[in-house]
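Sanity check

After download, print the first record. It should look like this:
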Amino acid sequence: MRPTGKLHLGNYMGALANWVRLQDQYDCYFFIADWHALTSDYADPSQITPNTRDVLLDYLAAGLDPARSVLFLQSKVLQHAELNLLLGMITPLGWLERVPTYKEQQENLTGKDLSNYGFLGYPLLMASDILIYQPQFVPVGHDQTAHVELTREVARRFNQFYKLNGRDVLPEPQVLLTPSPKLPGTDGRKMSKSYGNTIQITDPETVVRQKLKTMVTDPARVRRTDKGDPDKCPVGDLHKVFSTPETLAKVYDGCRSAGIGCIECKSWAADGLVQVLNPIQERRAGFKESELVEILEDGSNRARQRAEQTMQEVRTAMQMTLTSPAGRE
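Expected structure tokens:
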């Protein structure tokens, strides 16, 4: 995840909660993408370091375990940049321009100038982030499958040009689709830091309840007596993820009959969110600064060692073994 601010419920439900479960089944690498943050926040990088600390805390509070997974900082593993440079030599420009999120972000983030090389090339850096560990799977939601497909295409093109003793160096990783429930922001759009519509993992109960009070609802319910439909309401989407079956049944009955108002419905949704957030926030408060530094240093060292194994194969396959690329240990 990019350290562009504290993580929110969309990050948690869309990725973090699934990552925690994957630790029991796979050898996992989870990192904080500080280089990626520069693709859009290049003009003011002052918050990247404090945001990195916040993201690591959110990782740990959610349940990622540095004893079972590798937790690291992207910029501490320079092999990511080396592989990105080499793959950039063989990646057609059109492949980057067609990535769906490239145009989507340009349209949505109109307040920033995103006509820079780094923003255009960020899907290739993502591919390098993946391929440097020669993985079998990449856990993503449906909205990220295009990035994994680009990664597969880049790996395939590399393997067409270069072999190591007759074998492929870079695998074509498979998509590991993880559950990603629909989680709207307070304005009804997808929850995103870019839109300023998030409920953060660190938001105290009073803030959560206040944000939900202003959340948009079913447009059909203009007046208290108007009947609504939870399936057309962003608050209803939150209930489907966080509320108990009993509460959800009351929501459907009360909303469709106008038996409850939106304020009461939002209060019930807040109850469900708080039940999830409270234990995460309690765990988050238990980590010391020295622990965070140690965890990130240890994880980055482990990641660097594994990444260098891949780069040794890449350099040999590309017949670049007489050079001393930046980041080579």
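If your output differs, re-run the checksum step. Summary of this record's structure: The chain has two domains: 9-183+288-317, 193-284.
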